[in-house]
Amino acid sequence: MLPLNLLATVFTAGLAIAASIPPLPGVAEGRPTLDVPTLPEVQAMLARLQGPIISTIISRAALPAESLLYANGGKALTSFIHKTELIALTLNTYEFGSRYDYGSLEYPFTLPAVGPDITTPTNPFPPGRFHQDTFTPNADLLSFYVTTLVPLIEDANTAIAGPGGSSPFYHLKRPSSPVDVDAKYTLDDQLLALLSHWASIGKVVAEVKYRAHVAEFTPLIKSGNVNALRTLLTNTTQEKIVLESANSAAFALATAFEAAQNDPPAIAKAFVSRVQTAVARVYRELIDVTKEVEIQYLLQRFH
């Protein structure tokens, strides 16, 4: 663990950096030219996130998810995330590069996001070139997390040891208030970051589809026809593949987790089933939120 004086220094530096960031500046010059990959390559990126997302859901379900910790729209969790994001910003101070840099497709929940690109005669952003917009999925994802996913996580946790749930952390004295709060919020923060990244890759998906069908997309973008854009972007066959793959992975990973825990078969079966329910709900939400990311990206494509 970092010494307290170093943590204080890092936190103070993060505050100074955050204070210096103007809200959503419009920037185009000086940024790298980022051409998007192919659709199969993008699908492979999303597939590689499946293991981290589902394993983090399982790890989080190993700890109780008391509703008290997520009261007031997740105010305490948001405060925790804010502190971690301030620390992340200090990486630029040490020349390592922040996770929130341009083109990273990672966007903070509590800090100003990267400013949008501006199309100019000298920088027209031809089809296939990434064009940063102002939309992030984070507000929707945080709301979903607090109102929908947390109860599902708590339900999976109670399957391990009945009412009240269980925790792998051992305490000689267990207070009446929630314990291991830092561990819970750390996993919440990690899981939300993964979900945000998955959904934000939708910006690249939108650019790939636009590049392949410029003539079809252009009039819909210019007229702001959201319903037609949604129809053109939707691929129900691919959605079904994603949902089935996530369900299979959830079963395999949760089963392996329970085998390591050496729980009785009935408890293991209940936990695995409830994890699958949570994962199915997460991926349905991800598909829907990602589609909104794609639509909002395209609506700003010519700005």
Provide an overview of this structure.
Helix 3 runs antiparallel to helix 6 and helix 9 crosses helix 11. The protein contains eleven helices and no strands. The longest helix has 35 residues. The chain has a single domain, classed as Chorismate Mutase, subunit A (Orthogonal Bundle), CATH 1.10.590.10. The protein is globular. It has 303 residues and is an all-alpha fold. Keywords: Amino-acid biosynthesis, Aromatic amino acid biosynthesis, Cytoplasm, Isomerase, Phenylalanine biosynthesis, Signal. Its EC number is 5.4.99.5.
Based on the model shown, name its key terms.
single chain, 303 residues, 63% helix, globular, isomerase, chorismate mutase, CM_AroQ_sf_eucaryotic
Number of helices: 11
Radius of gyration: 21 Å
Helical residues, percent: 55-70%
Taken from the alpha-carbon principal axes, the silhouette is globular
CATH class: Mainly Alpha
Query: Are there runs of 5+ residues with pLDDT below 50, and where?
Result: 21-28
Span between N and C termini? 46 Å
Number of strands: 0
Which helices and strands occur, and which strands form pairs?
Elements: H1 4-19, H2 39-48, H3 50-61, H4 71-89, H5 138-161, H6 181-200, H7 202-212, H8 214-223, H9 226-233, H10 236-261, H11 265-299
Question: Brief overview, please?
Answer:
By secondary structure, this protein is mainly alpha-helical. 63% of the residues lie in helices and 0% in strands.
